[in-house]
Amino acid sequence: MGVFFEKIPPGSLTMYYACRRCNTLLANQQHIMSVNFRGASGTAYLFEKAENILCQETEKRHLMTGQHYTSNLVCAKCQHKLGWFYDYACEQSQEYKEGKYILELEMVAKVTITTLDEHKLAAQ
């Protein structure tokens, strides 16, 4: 997974999700596909894109919606567990999840980034 960088238009505010432990940016709020998911720690969101994460070994799991092959997600900076990645869905009705990311809300923090914050991030 690549290094996170997204150009923020001058004077704008952008909402992101970051690692709760080290504040590394992970996903833009605009990439949320669904807020109706549950993880081990509670509410979770399905994202179409995420950055600064590492996928661990793929495992076959029986989830509430059937059999899936998933990989645990951890923060690329501090290895804090964040959620999981859908590698493969065994049921056709669940294929829309393939290649998508689940971030558990207990593991991430919602942050607002402004144009001024972008310059601080670029300097790090």
**Strand tally, please?**
9
Going by helix content, strand content and strand pairing, the class is: mainly beta
Share of β-strand residues: over 45%
Low-confidence runs of at least 5 consecutive residues: 1-5
* Biggest beta-sheet profile: 6 strands, antiparallel
Integer average pLDDT:
85
The percent range for helix content is: under 10%
Radius of gyration: 15 Å
**Cα shape:** globular
| First and last CA, distance | 18 Å
What order do the SSEs take from the amino end to the carboxyl end, as H and E?
Answer: EEEEEEEEEH
- Count of separate DSSP helical elements: 1
Strands side by side in the biggest sheet: 3-4-8-7-6-5
Summary?
This protein has 124 residues and is mostly beta strands.
What does this structure look like?
With 124 residues, the protein is mainly β. It has 1 helix and 9 strands, in the order βββββββββα. A 6-stranded antiparallel sheet has the order 3-4-8-7-6-5, with no helix packed on it. Strand 6 (66-75) and strand 7 form a beta hairpin.
